[in-house]
Amino acid sequence: MTSFGTLPAGPLTARLSGYRMERDALGRSAARVFRLEGEGLPALYLKIEEAGPFGELADEAARLDWLKAAGLACPDVIAREGDGGRNWLLIGALPGSDLASAAALTPLARVELLAQALLDLHRLPIASCPFDHRLEKRLPAAKARMEAGFVDEDVFDAARLGKSAAALFADLERLKPGDEDLVVTHGDACLPNFIALDGRFSGYIDCSRLGVADRYQDIALACRSIADNFGEALVQPFLDRYGLPAPDPARLDYYQLLDEFF
């Protein structure tokens, strides 16, 4: 277990009394994530990031509050703190295991749960969602991250390794789809960001990129995650369960390309 170190005085510090924490290294978030446990206490997660223009913890807190109000399961926001140098976000832990590691379920059951979770999210009315992630917003955000040095060319997908971020961004502009099939998207629809308990979906996590965007924002990343975790054979059952049995390959590739910048 890890010690808490220096934390700001306030509700967050008071809420941690009796807890010990352990680093959770799953995922590619720029924030440090810790799981908190204590005798007789509910499990929590603490996220810590350096303050700056590309921080995501404030975005995550706002989206969790909105998603909870919309009636979908996600962690409770317990406390937020910032001191100008760092930001902290304390949230509840959902019961169960993420869909990448829920070994009690078959891979097929997990991809079907993922499909249903995305259907439920995508059915929310876009007019009610205040978070705009359409391409006219996301492409400038991608460019800003690239110009600030926040795009790591060493972790590009295998098909794009060895290419520069600038070359990929030129492809994003050149290949931009002419229209968007807008829904409320999770934004990072990979298996580890969806939780299940006793064979049932129990909630969405890591929601900092949730917003109105083309449904392929989620479908593309879900297909990639399924192939990486379970093999290509389970991509089609996912698509069938979602109701998109013959997706547009160009759009799948485009949104996977866009994800290289986030």
UniProtKB/TrEMBL annotation:
Any matching Pfam family: APH
Domain Aminoglycoside phosphotransferase residue range list: 25-253
Top-level enzyme category: transferase
UniProt xrefs under InterPro entries: Aminoglycoside_PTrfase, Kan/Strep_kinase, Kinase-like_dom_sf
Domain of life, per lineage: Bacteria
Entry keyword set: Antibiotic resistance, ATP-binding, Kinase, Nucleotide-binding, Transferase
Stored Gene3D superfamilies: 3.90.1200.10, Phosphorylase Kinase, domain 1 (3.30.200.20)
Enzyme Commission designation: 2.7.1.95
The reaction(s) this protein catalyses: kanamycin A + ATP = kanamycin 3'-phosphate + ADP + H(+)
Family to which this protein belongs: Belongs to the aminoglycoside phosphotransferase family.
Protein name listed in UniProt: Aminoglycoside 3'-phosphotransferase
Organism: Rhizobium lentis
